[in-house]
Design goal:
Blueprint: H1 7-17, H2 21-30, H3 35-52, E1 60-68, E2 71-79, H4 82-85, H5 88-104, H6 106-124, E3 129-137, E4 140-146, E5 150-157, H7 161-174, H8 186-201, H9 207-225, E6 231-232, E7 235-239, H10 240-246, E8 250-258
Antiparallel strand pairs: 1-2, 2-3, 4-5, 5-8, 6-7
Length: 260
C-alpha cells in the first residue's frame, strides 16, 4: 500500500460512500491518496459493475408508496433476490427514489436514477433496476402496502382517507379486474362465455336449463371480478359499492402493483 493511504483516509471515503473498506482502499491507491479522484474511480467502477450485471434477471424487489398533497406516488424497484430486497441500503434507495420523484418530478428523478443506483449495485453485488412508477392525483387518496411486495392506491371522490385505505386493502386481498361492470368489454365477455359454455354443454341438461346455467355462471364470475359488486372484506354483509354509497363516495380509479 502506498504510504500516503492512511486509515483515516479510508474511513473518510467509506463514510461518504458506504462502499466496502477494501474497495475504498483500492480506489485511494489508484488515486494516489486523493479523495476526490478516488470518488471518481469508485463512480466509474460502479458504472462498469452495473453494466456487467445488466443482462441478469431482477425479479424480486420492493414497492414503495409516498403520499403528498393531492397526489400519491407508487414506485417499484427490482433486484435479483429476496435477500437484497430486505437489505437496508436497497430499501432506503427505493424510499429515496420515491421521495425524489414525488418532490422533484418523475422525469427529473429518472435523469438521475443511474447515478444514484449504481453505487448500491456496487455495494450489494446484484442488478438493480427501476420498475413501474405510478403517480395518482385525486381528491381523496388512500393506500395499502403489504410487506413491500404488493401495494394499492385508491382515488375517491368524496369519503375519507380512511375509507380509501380500507378499499385499497380490500383490493389487495380480492384483486378485482374492474371497478364497474360497464368496463367489461364484449371480447372479455365472449371469452368467458366460451369457457363456461363448455362446462354447461357437458352437463347434459335441457337447452333452456343450459341457458340459465350459462347466464348464472357468467354473472357470478364477473361479480367476483368487479370491485363494487364484491363483498367487502371487513364486513361481508355489504358490497364495496354499498359501502361507498353509504359514505357518500365514488371510486375514481385504483392502481395495483405486485412483485412475485
Amino acid at each position: 500500500m502506498s504510504t500516503n493511504i492512511t486509515t483515516e483516509l479510508v474511513k473518510e471515503l467509506r463514510d461518504s460512500t458506504g462502499i466496502s473498506v477494501m474497495q475504498c482502499r483500492n480506489a485511494l491507491i489508484e488515486a494516489d491518496g486523493d479523495i476526490q479522484k478516488a470518488l471518481l474511480v469508485l463512480k466509474k467502477k460502479s458504472s462498469d459493475i452495473a453494466m456487467k450485471k445488466s443482462d441478469r434477471e431482477a425479479s424480486d424487489g420492493v414497492i414503495v408508496v409516498k403520499e403528498g398533497a393531492g397526489k400519491t406516488l407508487l414506485l417499484t424497484l427490482h433486484c435479483e433476490t429476496d435477500f437484497v430486497a430486505k437489505n437496508s441500503d436497497f430499501v432506503n434507495l427505493a424510499e429515496n427514489l420515491a421521495g425524489m420523484a414525488l418532490a422533484e418530478g418523475v422525469s427529473i428523478m429518472k435523469e438521475k436514477v443511474n447515478e444514484i443506483i449504481n453505487p448500491i449495485i456496487q455495494k450489494v453485488g446484484e442488478k438493480i433496476e427501476l420498475g413501474m412508477i405510478n403517480e395518482i392525483i385525486g381528491e381523496v387518496l388512500g393506500s395499502y402496502v403489504h410487506n413491500k411486495k404488493s401495494a394499492v392506491v385508491v382515488s375517491l371522490k368524496g369519503g375519507t382517507k380512511e375509507l380509501a385505505r380500507d378499499v385499497a386493502m380490500h383490493i389487495a386481498a380480492m384483486k378485482p379486474s374492474f371497478i364497474h361492470k360497464d368496463e367489461i368489454s364484449e371480447d372479455t365477455k365472449n371469452q368467458a362465455k366460451e369457457v363456461f359454455q363448455k362446462e354447461v354443454d357437458r352437463s347434459g341438461k335441457p337447452e333452456e336449463i343450459k341457458e340459465k346455467m350459462l347466464a348464472g355462471k357468467i354473472d357470478t364470475y364477473f361479480k367476483e371480478q368487479t370491485l363494487v359488486d364484491q363483498s367487502f372484506v371487513k364486513n361481508p354483509d355489504v358490497t364495496v359499492g354499498v359501502l361507498l354509497a353509504n359514505n357518500g363516495a365514488k371510486i375514481v380509479e385504483f392502481v395495483r402493483e405486485s412483485i412475485n
